[in-house]
Amino acid sequence: FLDVNPAFERMTGLKADEIIGRTVLEVLPGTEQYWIERYGRVALTGEPADFESYSSEIDKHFDVTAFQPAPGQFACIFSDITVRTKAEKDLIRLNIELDNRVRERTAELEMINKELDAFTYSVSHDLRAPLRRIKGFSEAVLTDHADKIDNLGQEYLKRISSSVYSMGCLIDDLLKLSRVTRHEIEQEPVDLSKLAEACLEQLHDREPHRQVEAIIEPRLVVAGDISLLRIALENMLENAWKYSSAAETARIELGSLNREGRSIYFISDNGTGFDMTQQEKLFTAFKRLHSEKDYPGTGIGLSIVSRIITRHGGKVWADSTPGKGATFYFTLP
Q: pTM above 0.85?
C-alpha cells in the first residue's frame, strides 16, 4: 500500500497508518488470488479494468475501477455496492420462490379445474336423468290417467312438470356460470351492434306478437371474446325484453356514451325498473328483485354478465326508477 484515503478507511475499517508500507497479503491474508492477478495486470500493462468483486475478508461487494498512475503501480476507485448486491440476490431468491409458488398454485388450479369439470359432468348428466324421469312419469300420468284424477290432482301434476322445467333451467344456468368462469378469453374485434341485432331478432321470433321498438347504435366495436360477450349481451337484452313486457310498446336501446375519453356502453328499456336501494343484489346469483310468478327466471343471468365483464377488465352497473325502466352500463378495454 502506497496510500489510502479516508473513504477507504471508512469502507474497510482499516487505518492508513496501519497499512501503508505493507503488502496486501500482509494486511488481508485472505485476499483472493484473482484480485492480485487483476491488479498486477493493470500495473504491468497500463490497461485499466472495471469489474465487480467481493471481499470475503470484510464481507463487502464493490464496483471497482483500477488504473495505472505510474509504471509498476495501480490505483483503485471502490464503490461499495454491498446493499445493492444483496438486494439483487434477495430479489433473485424471491423470484425463484415466487416462480415455485406460481407453479405449485398452477398445478393446484389445474387439479381444481379437473374437479370442476367432473362436477359439471355430474351436474349435467346425473341430475338431469332423475329430472327427465320425474317429468316423463308425471306427464304420462296426466295423459294416460287424466280421467281417474280430479282437477286438483291434475293441477299438482302440472306444478310438478313446471318445477322440473325450472330445475332444468337452473342447471343450465349453473353450467353457463361455470363455463364462463373457466373459459379462456380470446381477444378479437367484436361488433356489439351486430350481436344485439341477432339477439333481438331471436327474441322477436319467439314472441312475434310483441311490439318492441329497438334502437341500436351502429358499429359499436370493442376488443373481447365474442362468445362471452354474446352471452353477456343476450342476458341483458333478454332482461330488457322480459321486464318491458307490460309496456304497450316496449323500447330497448343499445348505445354508447363518452366520458373523459372513455366509452361507456348501455342497454336501456322502458319496463318495470327496480328499486335502487336493492341494487347490491342485482349481480348476485339467485338474488331476485321481482316475483318469479310475474317474471320467471333463475336469478343467475346478471351474475353471468358481471363475471364476463369483470373478466374482460371492465365494470358493470345499473340505474333505474321503478315503473320507468332500467339502464345497464358497462365498460370494456
A: no
